[in-house]
Write a structure and sequence with these properties.
elongated; 4-stranded antiparallel sheet; Rossmann fold; Alpha-Beta Plaits; 312 residues; 6-stranded mixed sheet; alpha/beta; 29% strand
Amino acid sequence: MTDSSFAVEAVNLTKRFGDFTAVDGVSFQVERGEIFAFLGPNGCGKTTTIRMLCGIIAPTSGTGRVAGYDILTQPDQVKEHIGYMSQRFSLYDELTVRENLEFYAGVYQVDPAGRRSRLEELISLAGLEGREGDLAANLSGGWKQQLALACSIVHRPPILFLDEPTAGVDPVSRRRFWEVIYDLSEGGVSVFVTTHYMDEAEHAHRVSLMLAGRLIACDSPERLKSAAQPGSLLEVECEPVVSALELLPGVAGVKEVAVYGSLLHVVVDPAEDRATQLREALEGHGVEVQRIEAIRPSLEDVFIGAIGAATT
């Protein structure tokens, strides 16, 4: 890595495809050893941003540096110093676990003298002991994910880009995957990960919320949640939910109402007895209320609030 304060820097990165702006003036920095998450719905520009930073596509305007190298003028050097794992798991199905690792070790020109020990280390890291001879095509989604991650770091890159790495993978595999990510981060690797899973973004040191090609917030999960609500957040369990959803916005002191699974999350002015006021309003209109309690906002609440602020 060349001399640079940050592992990744983006300054007004913009990408247009004809009349469509996929990424619109995005700026941020990623610290060395930091887990940095891009959180947003599908189609918001996360993958396009990561592909520009990896030197795969050129930005329409703006600049960026990765590992100290300019993404416009030094894309080859950028690629040499990063690991990249796409959501499609770039594996060769007709090759075994070990053969996939050997192939990528050759592509990244891993020193032959230490290649054998490096592959054994990666097989252990990925939990693939005993599966070295299995064809990649026969692995479950979770094991394919672990193998793809191992292949992307075979050359010990200082920066790792992960594009929706856990899409379609079971919860147990997701948890195991994040344990490996934490180990890499503690070892000094900077990890840039895109995701649309709200709970997954909680694992990052910092989270950037992206909507329609723009960054609408960026901070640690805790600070985002602490600063998110302009009032108190109440969780409401009631029946029927649809009736409550229609009624609550008209109740005095209610600032925002959102569906959260089978529940409602209601932002209210931080005054006393708001819960009692909501209960009376709902029950007065025939809505059965099981529970109303104050809760801390989740990242999903933060994102919904940020979307509302960005679109008004």
